[in-house]
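Deliverable D2.4 — example input (structure tokens):
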């Protein structure tokens, strides 16, 4: 069995609801605490999208998992949003929310918070409806393939990519992490933007019975990977995970946010 096959097998035990419970409710998603990691991520995304540079026809989120918080700001600036994940259980979780089915995860606290951050008027309910209308597809993705979305979307067809906690979590080693970044970059038009969030110095995380290995990366490693993939880094921020948020579901030390632009040479 190859390293990639081993990673794929480990994800067959991934529990979306356990993952959401571990990371997207308090204490990590505490909207009364400005220093919570979730508030930090949402601010990074909202501030970047407020520049006016993140816009176009098509936004693709690579490795969405069972979450949608990462597209709340960017989705306002695109006609078409595509969510993707390797696992059908995660794609099913996304569809459950998109179709407003009973039992779907409640993202309304996120909608309310981001609506306040953006200060663009309208209600959070209107924002939620716009997002549901703009997400046109939920697709399978394999970042270890040269064309991660297969025949669904060709190379250089996407205006902006978002990816959060995906590449380091699904790659068996640093070499494959770098290659996966190159693979998803092939989808992006020259001059297109990447909004990239990931874990710093993490070796594992839990999702129910699944214990998933992670490639530990540092700021230097991520910066070098972006440079090697022909990106110009426009902004790079880091967050140090406080002891109170180290709750035993992973060994993460921090989180990074990178905004990068693909150069014409790619």
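Example output (designed residues):
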């Amino acid at each position: 069995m190859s390293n990639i096959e081993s990673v794929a097998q480990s994800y067959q035990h991934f529990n979306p609801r356990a993952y959401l419970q571990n990371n997207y409710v308090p204490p990590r998603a505490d909207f009364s605490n400005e220093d919570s990691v979730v508030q930090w991520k949402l601010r990074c995304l909202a501030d970047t999208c407020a520049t006016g540079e993140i816009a176009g026809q098509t936004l693709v989120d690579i490795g969405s998992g069972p979450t949608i918080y990462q597209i709340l700001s960017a989705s306002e600036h695109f006609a078409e949003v595509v969510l993707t994940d390797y696992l059908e259980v995660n794609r099913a979780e996304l569809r459950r929310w998109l179709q407003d089915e009973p039992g779907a995860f409640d993202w309304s606290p996120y909608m309310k918070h981001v609506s306040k951050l953006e200060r663009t008027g309208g209600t959070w309910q209107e924002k939620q409806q716009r997002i549901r209308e703009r997400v046109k597809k939920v697709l399978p993705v394999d970042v270890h393939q040269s064309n991660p979305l297969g025949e669904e979307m060709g190379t250089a067809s996407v205006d902006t990519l978002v990816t959060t906690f995906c590449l380091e979590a699904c790659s068996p080693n640093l070499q494959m992490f770098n290659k996966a970044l190159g693979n998803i970059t092939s989808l992006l038009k020259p001059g297109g933007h990447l909004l990239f969030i990931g874990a710093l110095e993490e070796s594992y995380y839990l999702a129910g019975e699944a214990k998933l290995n992670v490639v530990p990366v540092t700021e230097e490693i991520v910066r070098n990977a972006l440079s090697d993939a022909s990106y110009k880094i426009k902004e790079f921020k880091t967050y140090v995970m406080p002891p109170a948020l180290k709750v035993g579901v992973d060994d993460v030390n921090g989180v990074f946010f990178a905004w990068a632009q693909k150069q014409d040479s790619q």
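Residues 3-262 form a domain with the Rossmann fold fold (CATH 3.40.50.150).
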